[in-house]
Amino acid sequence: MSEECGAAPGAAAPSAAGPGVIDLLGLLAYARLVAFFRLAGDAEFAPTLASKGALADLAGAEHANYRRLHDRLAELGVQPESAMEPFTAPLDAWHARTEPQGWVESLVKVYVGDGIADDFYSKLAELCDEQTHALVRGTLVESGRAEFVVARVRSAVAEEPALAGRLSLWARRLVGEALSQAQSVAAQRPELAALLASGVGKVAPGAGADGSGQDEGASAAGAEATDLATVGRVFADLTESHTARLEALGLST
Amino acid sequence: MSEECGAAPGAAAPSAAGPGVIDLLGLLAYARLVAFFRLAGDAEFAPTLASKGALADLAGAEHANYRRLHDRLAELGVQPESAMEPFTAPLDAWHARTEPQGWVESLVKVYVGDGIADDFYSKLAELCDEQTHALVRGTLVESGRAEFVVARVRSAVAEEPALAGRLSLWARRLVGEALSQAQSVAAQRPELAALLASGVGKVAPGAGADGSGQDEGASAAGAEATDLATVGRVFADLTESHTARLEALGLST
Q1: Which residues form the Ferritin-like domain (chains A, B) (predicted)?
Q2: Do B56 and A66 count as a contact with CB atoms less than 8 A apart?
Q3: What is the pLDDT confidence band of residue A247, given thresholds at 50, 70 and 90?
Q4: Which of A31, A190, B7, B251 could bond to B18 as cystine, CB 3.0-4.6 Å?
Q5: CA of A63, closest CA in chain B: separation in Å?
Q6: Residues in CB range of A131: below 8 A, 6 or more apart
Q7: What integer pLDDT is reported at residue A184 of this predicted model?
């Protein structure tokens, strides 16, 4: 990978990292901040002191992730809040549309919803310079989340088998809403879409870096037309890990 | 200070630390966990991305404090959740009775309410063994909180001078409710009350450690009768720092 993946040479880029990379870091920083809020809220309403503590630990890990992404943006000479700003609306919309009804739905959302989102971010990070890739990979470590959630969801389903059908539907809705928001982001952030497209052979790597500024619209010819298809294809590629997570919870796809 | 301050030699104490110390660590662990929930909630509803991030940082610091206290309890051979349990009701009651109406009241609560609570815990920790004292002192570091809160409250008051009177009353109520909950805790946890009393000359240091178990009631003769007075005296001793905090905010006592 190029050290300047997504960079816009000659443009008023504040650093070696291009707008695709800055977008990814801004998106992820806000995603981690909101994940922190969600997990802290879930922790507060968890049924026991031990599960409050366990979820508070997960929230603490998300805060640390947010802080690292935030600091990396500042290090790149970017105002972190400006980089996060374009992603507040779609991420807030995703959370508003997937408000869990109760504790078990929260757990499924944390595991299945954040799981597929993390796979998606990971895919994007693979297309970036090594430093960005390593940073993003570091923030995606599930840090005990899987174990904690899987045990609790399985025991809830064992106690009330009818839950399995409801939770399977819930998981399907989570993925549908995630796909919808990802497509909206791709439509609004052409550099990020170009970065993503570079990974599925629609656009050659680096083709998005033609020197256009962020406000000049899509920079790679034909990128707009394929945005929706690209996002859909990437999501389809993530099916395997998604199915594995559902199976771990004892749910069907 | 004795290495076994508050210890109950010969009793079924699980470690060198006595019930007064275990109580203090359990109380503080739960206080930090709840402070984490409050700050994370305040962060979520903060008006800008930058203030969301700054409050999330404070919440992250409180989570780290909770984790250290929790791990210390486990290290002492105590089930951390059992040590925290007796303090959930009074701390939840304190928060329920001091629900802030809006963002500025939240900030004042964080600074003034947590400030006096921290001074109180600090007073208790001084009476413990050096390791406990150092641990507690470490969890009370204000880590940028003061600076963040003071600037925001002062600017809110400058914009709307009538706020000063309302916030001064709010600060008074925060202290009143804290005193009331501290007295309730002292009445219910005689070892903790004895530890506190040992610091104000009512009971000689270590006098509470007469070998009684946690469920045998007050162990130092006369301790019950002076519990309320002791807590009141300790709070009175904390007036100076409390007044300094109010002055920093531009509020009156």
Answers
A1: 20-198
A2: yes
A3: very high
A4: B7
A5: 6
A6: none
A7: 87
